[in-house]
Amino acid sequence: MALVEAAKTRMQEELNVGRDIQRSMLPRVFPAFPDRKELELYAVLEPASEIGGDLYDFFLVDQHRLCFVIGDVSGNGVPAALFMAMTKIMVKTRAASDPSPASIVTHVNDALSAENDSCMFVTLYLGILNLRDGTLVTTNAGHNPPLLKRRNGAFEWLTAQDGPLVGPMAGIAFKESTIQLEPGDELFLYTDGVTEADNRRRELFGKDRLKMVLRKSQALSVVDRLGEVMLAVKAFAGDAPQADDITMLGLRYHGMTPSDVATRVFRQTMPNQLEAIPVLQIAFEEYVAQWEDAKPLIPTLNMALDDLLNNVVQYAFPNDPTEHHIDVEGDVQDGYVILTIADDGIPFNPLSAAPPDLSLLLHEREIGGLGIHLVRSMFDEVTYHRNVGRNVLTVKKKLVAKSFVLGHRDDHKKSGKSDVGKQPPLPHQPMDEGTDVDSVRRGAVMIVTPQDRFDTNSAPEVERIVLGHIQRGERRIVLDLSNISYISSIGLRVILKAVMVMTEAGGRLVLSGGNEQVRTVLQLSGALMMSLHASTLEEAHSKVQEAG
Predict the structure, then answer these.
(1) In this structure, which CATH number among 3.60.20.10, 3.60.40.10, 3.40.50.1110, 3.40.50.410 belongs to the domain 2-253?
(2) Alpha-carbon distances, residue 476 vs 274, 324, 460, 506, 510 (angstroms)
(3) Which residues contact 289 (CB under 8 A, 6 or more apart)?
(4) Rg of the Cα trace of the chain?
(5) Does domain 266-415 have CATH number 1.10.10.10?
(6) pLDDT per residue as tens digits for the range 101-146
(7) Could you tell me the pTM of the whole model?
(8) How far apart are the C-alpha atoms of 113 and 110, rounded to whole Å?
(9) CB 32: neighbour CB atoms within 10 A?
């Protein structure tokens, strides 16, 4: 008798552990996204007496895309709970960098099938919803068909099966389906604990009863509708024991208003003046900084803005003294930062130009071409087209990790920051009279340190100072790049010119430091072949004094 009681105790402890694992892994704070008007979402899980492995999850991949998943793991107890936890973690990790539900499920399947000696499996229904336009891409891997209610009251079962169960076998390429949601459409997802709930007469609740309950509760909120289904299932089962977890996820899509779109997409218009470039860059930095994983891309994005806008200002309007406007639009979606520049200048496709021959010496190279070469090399996609008399250039840069929205438009207004939505043209603003460039002598070496940026705004001052030192007889110069956030091709030209002038004068110029963006630009441009580079200032100080 004591052994039986001990076994029951151990079994109950195992169930408690499994229940704790399951409960701790699922989001339970609602409303899920109180600041987002585009959707209404709720989920609930009622565990069975013997813990199963039901799961659900939902999270914003970026500011415009919602990922949600529901699933049912085979078996019960601690093994099912652990398999559920692994599945949920793998889905969320993969979705951070993969915009395709089919690809996400394929990778999760391959990972779960490794060393899966017990042949456990999980059914999954995974969707990624674009909150701006209602495009829903889904993959159903052996799961129950969801029920879609259109805003006109029509119901339809989403019966597409894009692959088998997840976990037993590796090497399966899952497919995906695309559904267009309209404002007012609703999606209801569930596990078989709903439709296979039975009563004492061994009758199943079934899909027809589920659809009937949802039809009768159309006027209710998502939360209340799921509550009505739960009550109906329990009333149907009566005193019959609950054999499986009951899990439901409901989503109502409200869509975005035009004003919502305007505040979540960066739009500015600037005059064709070089002085307007840094003003626009500051506003774009503020916009991009809303995404934690986009912040590391700011130096590269600033480089692109400086080079591309400089080209437009300098060459798009030849012999035309009138003021023109350049439209700049930015967006963060589908795992990318997207930047588009449009102007009404003469037709010019910068992508048609041949890349610069970096093997040539500086005096042998043609002027120009470095800027677009850097942009094409450092961005994932660069496209050009001519549209209704306008040049339109678009660049895309992949985000580095999972995205979290740091603030909403209302937060920026409260904090006093400038609105980064649709704005009037930027005014003509004068450049700084001088850029902060430090010059310090250490023995026979002159150390020149630009501050903040090395671009259209600062390059002329850096050039004046460095060439001035050479003209005054300095033959050992270290150009310390450790304090700049980025360098564009305009700053790069100053370096190459200074190297050539110093070489002709019989001296030596060494570059020092620089962040990842700076080092990448130096490498891609061939500047490292024409000048020495040192990681630290001390190393540069030693190199510049070596015999040249």
Answers:
(1) 3.60.40.10
(2) 33, 44, 21, 10, 8
(3) 295, 298, 406
(4) 30
(5) no
(6) 999 999 999 999 998 989 999 999 999 999 988 999 999 999 999 9
(7) 0.57
(8) 5
(9) 19
